[in-house]
Design brief:
41% helix; Rossmann fold; alpha/beta; globular; single chain; five-stranded parallel beta sheet; 5 helices
Length: 128
């Protein structure tokens, strides 16, 4: 069974995404409210992927991703950024970081698992 870590400073987003992934895909979901907490959870739980908000107070998503890349315990975990920024320049900047994918807010809870699976090349059948 897949596991995903959601890192987002907004509790509502974490809850909606977690419920969506658990209900539609049956995945195990871990959550964290900050990049620092997220790296600690990723180190302990070793999720199959991380879904991370770009804009967070303190340490933002791109900085958290760079910190993860320098940590051998979590550098192998694919990261998908979740952002409300849809400008082309932002998309190119995020893609140049080396993240697995960029998904956009607001997301559709019913298709979130499919979007993550497609982005990461996960081939298992999803219920939807």
């Amino acid at each position: 069974m897949r596991s995903v870590l959601i890192i987002d400073d907004e509790e509502d987003i974490r809850e909606v995404a977690a419920l969506a992934l658990e209900a539609t895909a049956g995945w195990t979901v871990f959550t964290a409210g900050s990049g620092i907490e997220g790296i600690a959870v990723a180190t302990k739980e070793q999720p199959d992927a991380v879904l991370m908000d770009v804009m967070m107070p303190g340490v933002d998503g791109p900085t958290t991703f760079r910190n993860m890349q320098q940590n051998p315990q979590v550098a192998h975990i694919p990261v998908i950024l979740l952002t409300a920024k849809v400008q082309g320049v932002d998309q190119r900047r995020f893609a140049s970081l080396g993240v697995a994918a960029v998904l956009f807010k607001p997301f559709d809870p019913l298709t979130l698992a499919r979007q993550i699976s497609d982005a990461l090349g996960w081939k298992e059948d999803l219920p939807i």
